[in-house]
């Protein structure tokens, strides 16, 4: 367990990071980032993070710095934006892998490939590297999908492909992943 002091002077909050979930001591609930946001990128690769998303992260850290993140290649053809505390906890877990195992080394190398620390500027923008943007096929616009403790960044084209999953496929996937079968009479109620 790692405890990290965050907050502005005069108001201190402690958060506890467990595995890859951040738990606030104020609410005892895991970080739950939610929402889907359409954003634009300028010709330098800067993207303004939506205020509604930043509000979910809480107060900015002390000093003149902005919100700290690490952006990396996603498992699919997207980018993943991790709040710094989430990244640090995930990295600590990954760094415990045995590097004498060739599969572990391959995973570690691939996972860290392209990982870049970023921080919001005064306009709440982050700068995304060209190599990462090329990997995800992102140029002028992107779709952000907030998922629990991280945010996926998709090209509009690839995001549209995500939406093309048929309801029946989603039901089958939920049955396999969640391990519970929803009776057919209740399937419409749960979507």
Instruction: Bin the helical content.
Output: 25-40%
What does the largest sheet look like? Answer: 6 strands, antiparallel
Low-confidence residue ranges: 1-29
- Residue fraction in strands: 25-35%
Please list the strands of the largest sheet in the order they lie side by side.
4-10-11-7-6-8
Distance between the termini: 36 Å
Helix tally equals 7
What would the principal axes of the Cα set say about the shape?
Answer: globular
* Overall pLDDT metric: 83
The class by helix and strand makeup works out as alpha+beta
Order of helices and strands: EEEEEHEEHHEEHEEHHH
**How many β-strand runs?**
11
The radius of gyration is: 18 Å
What this model shows, in words?
This protein is α+β, with helices and mostly antiparallel strands and 191 residues long. 31% of the residues lie in helices and 28% in strands. It contains seven helices and eleven strands. The protein has helices spanning 51-57, 84-94, 102-112, 130-136, 156-163, 167-178, 187-190; strands at 2-6, 13-18, 21-24, 36-40, 46-48, 68-73, 79-83, 116-119, 125-127, 141-147, 150-154. The strands form three sheets. The protein has a six-stranded antiparallel sheet. β10 (141-147) and β11 (150-154) form a beta hairpin. The longest helix is centred in the C-terminal third of the chain and has 12 residues, at 167-178. The two termini are 36 Å apart. Mean pLDDT is 83; it is low at 1-29.
């Amino acid at each position: 367990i790692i405890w990290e002091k965050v907050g502005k002077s005069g108001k201190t909050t402690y958060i506890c990071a467990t595995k890859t979930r951040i738990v606030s001591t104020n609410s005892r609930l895991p970080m739950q980032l939610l929402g889907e946001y359409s954003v634009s990128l300028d010709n330098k690769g800067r993207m303004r993070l939506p205020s509604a998303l930043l509000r979910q992260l809480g107060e900015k850290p002390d000093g003149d710095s902005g919100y700290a993140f690490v952006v990396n290649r996603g498992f699919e053809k997207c980018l993943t934006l991790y709040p710094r505390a989430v990244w640090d906890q995930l990295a600590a877990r990954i760094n415990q892998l045995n590097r004498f195992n060739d599969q572990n080394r391959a995973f570690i190398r691939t996972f860290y490939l392209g990982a870049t620390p970023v921080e919001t500027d005064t306009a709440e923008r982050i700068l995304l590297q060209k190599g990462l943007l090329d990997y995800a096929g992102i140029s002028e616009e992107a779709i952000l999908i907030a998922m629990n403790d991280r945010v996926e960044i998709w090209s509009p084209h690839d995001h549209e492909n995500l939406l093309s999953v048929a309801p029946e496929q989603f039901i089958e996937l939920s049955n396999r992943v969640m391990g519970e079968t929803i009776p057919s009479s209740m399937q419409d109620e749960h979507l």
